Structures
1.
Amino acid sequence: MGSESGFDAIIIGCGIAIAGASLAYFLAERGMTDILILEREEQPGYHATGRAAGVLVELDFVPSILELKILGGKFLRNPPDGFSEYPLLRRSGILIMFKGELWDSVQQMIPDLKQAGVVVNVLSQEEVTPIIPVVSPENFDGAVLLPEDGHIDANELLWSYIRQARRRGARLHLKEAVLGIKVESGRVSGVNTAAGEYYSRRVINASGAWAGNIRKLIGQTPVRLTPYRRTIITFAAPEGMETKDWPLAADLTHELYFSPESSGMLASPMDEDPMEPCDARPDELVVAQTVERLKQLTPGLAPKSIIHKWAGLRTFAPDQAMVVGEDPVVKGFFWLSGQGGSGIETSAAVGQIASDLIVDGHTEVMDIKPISSMRFGET
Ligand SMILES: Cc1cc2nc3c(=O)[nH]c(=O)nc-3n(C[C@H](O)[C@H](O)[C@H](O)COP(=O)(O)OP(=O)(O)OC[C@H]3O[C@@H](n4cnc5c(N)ncnc54)[C@H](O)[C@@H]3O)c2cc1C
């Protein structure tokens, strides 16, 4: 076992998409227990996973992501017995406001959403203001409320994946970055770290924002990914305003979401600035824009001061769909990347699909063409 004879699989990265952690769990559940997860940081979930708003929103304009969210939601609401110590989803609700053409498109999606089992209520302007009194009806034409969606306990989800995978034998090495990937005759054979070499015929790229850079370690591949920064601020709710039972409210036309959270409220200007993978920090200009947008759109909620601010990277392929499966060029090198802004809510579905592809070469979970790494073709 281990470095002498090689691992069944080596996973690069232990975020939630929890990617590395969810995959380790699903592989271990399928009996592949000789798994090594290599994580560069001192703790799992330090990057995108630890910085997310962490909500389940079963609405999306990218059809494959919508399907994955609905599948992921089923797991969050009803995880296997003994999987987690605490509930994974708080059904605090999601309310999304739309205007103009966006509103027309969303209304057309409603029958299909209901058909897929999503609980969705269509609200007029008059029905929104009693729920979120700080919004102005002239800013939107209508809204949808997803009452069964809401906040995910991302930390509990991440650690439950890790705990269960470890219980079956998976190993997690922290503070150990993958520095090189060995490819022999077009097939992966292992990885190098500062601590030495590890052998495996399966290496999985679950390195989040670094997935594009890890790509460079295997030579030619057509898969492309770009990290984009997103910012969140927290602030106290105005005195006398009871906000803790509000759903997360998003205005997609004016690009703003806000939600109650432990220290009061959080808000994001839904920024998407492309950048190199890094330990992302908030840009002061974007922080100021967030406050300005709150002042304009929700004057009653405008923050007097900011309590915390942070940023994280959301990583996308050019078509916004995820990238899952074996590399089109290098055999045994698998992608579990491009989770963008939905890696947590979709993690159970994507982890299961990736484990099917690694073990069986196919999956029955869904038609994976839109998310397959093979869609990029050969270089
Ligand atoms: C502000 C914000 C809000 C978000 N809101 C939501 C939301 O509401 N719902 C939702 O589902 N998602 C949300 N997301 C997206 C979600 O956070 C990501 O899709 C998900 O966390 C990605 O997980 P990951 O495991 O791919 O990446 P990460 O969590 O970044 O994990 C990748 C890991 O790989 C490690 N790594 C990188 N290179 C190496 C190497 N060479 N060797 C070893 N380890 C390496 C990194 O250290 C890192 O820990 C949000 C993201 C942000 C930034």
2.
Amino acid sequence: MNGSCHCGAVKFTYFGQPERLVVCNCSICRRLGPLWAHGPEGKIVVDAAPDATIAYVWGDKSLAFNTCKTCGCTTHWKGVGPSTPQNMALNMRLCDPDDIADIPVRRFDGADTWAFLD
Ligand SMILES: [Zn+2]
């Protein structure tokens, strides 16, 4: 499955089809509103120039949220701390809506319990 930011500077591929897409209510996700597909690096490839995105890292500095510098779309996050070096997720709202229409969406309580709410 392929996605890109609005201007096309950042493109990504998810190999296969994710089992689910995740809506999270944590402090950053509730503001950005992405639909995440998680996967280890390797299942996910991001194709962008090194300076095409802004990486936003905060709190315990375990995740970097990447946003296109040109068009402002949040494209993916990537684990940068010792506990999450291999983890990534793509914002599947950047895919063709028809491609993601049949994938179940689950609500994740990233704000509190770190469990699914549904
Ligand atoms: Zn862009």
